[in-house]
Amino acid sequence: MLGAALIALVIVGAVRARNRVDPTDVSLDPALVAKVRNQYRKGDKVGAVKALRAATGLGLADAVRIVDKLGATAKPTPSKAASSKAASSNAGPVAAGGVPPISATIGPDHQDELRSLVAAGQQIEAIKMVRTLTGMGLKDAKEYVDRLPPR
Q1: Helix 60-73 and helix 30-41, axial crossing angle in degrees, nearest 10
Q2: 106: which DSSP letter?
Q3: Strands (E) located in 8-146
Q4: Which CA distances in Å does 123 have to 34, 106, 118, 140?
Q5: Of 73, 101, 66, the residue nearest 86 (C-alpha)
Q6: Poorest-confidence range of 7-16, 44-53, 88-97?
Q7: What is the CB neighbour count within 10 angstroms for residue 137?
Q8: Which pLDDT score, from 0 to 100, does residue 42 have?
Q9: Residue 131 near residue 138 (C-beta atoms within 8 A)
Q10: Rounded to whole angstroms, how far apart are CA atoms 116 and 145?
């Protein structure tokens, strides 16, 4: 009896493995990537996973991993406070190309908070804050935090 159950389990496992989509064989079209990133950015991770699974046939665990990676590479949307600061600072100095300099989008109150985070040894939190406020990539945000003048 135990032997028959074990054989049935092995057969079921083999059938499931054969029906699974290999995540290394999946190619994602740019429209799907944009849709997944947009849903992830809006906070709808479940919807992003469902869309990816429907389009590719991936298993749940593989789809979640891919959505997390796509979401991590998506630029975060600035918070309401950051966008209102950016809007109010547009009347200030403008860098080449008509884009306000980073210091114009990060107000003095945030500058002080960033400096105190760096002084407390919390560079990662400071980088996260810069990325949230500006939408910068990781490398640019790190460089910005590294260039902050000391308190």
Answers
A1: 80
A2: S
A3: none
A4: 30, 16, 5, 13
A5: 101
A6: 88-97
A7: 12
A8: 87
A9: yes
A10: 11
Work out the burial of residue 83: count CB atoms within 10 Å of its CB; fewer than 13 is exposed, 13-18 middle, 19 or more buried.
middle
Residue with tokens 């109010």: 88
The residue written with tokens 């996973």 in the block is 49
Whole-angstrom Cα distance, residue 50 to residue 36? Answer: 9
What's the pLDDT band for 22 if we cut at 50, 70, 90? low
Residue 122's H or E segment, with its range, is none
The span from the CA of 106 to the CA of 147, in Å, is 14
Q: How far apart are CA 16 and CA 19, in angstroms?
A: 5
Q: What is the largest CA-CA distance in the chain?
A: 80
Name the nearest CA neighbour of 63 among 72, 73, 54.
54
pLDDT band at 95 (very low <50, low <70, confident <90, very high): very low
| Domain edges within the chain | 20-73, 80-147
- CA–CA dist 42, 103 (Å, integer): 26
| Cα distance between the two ends of the chain | 74
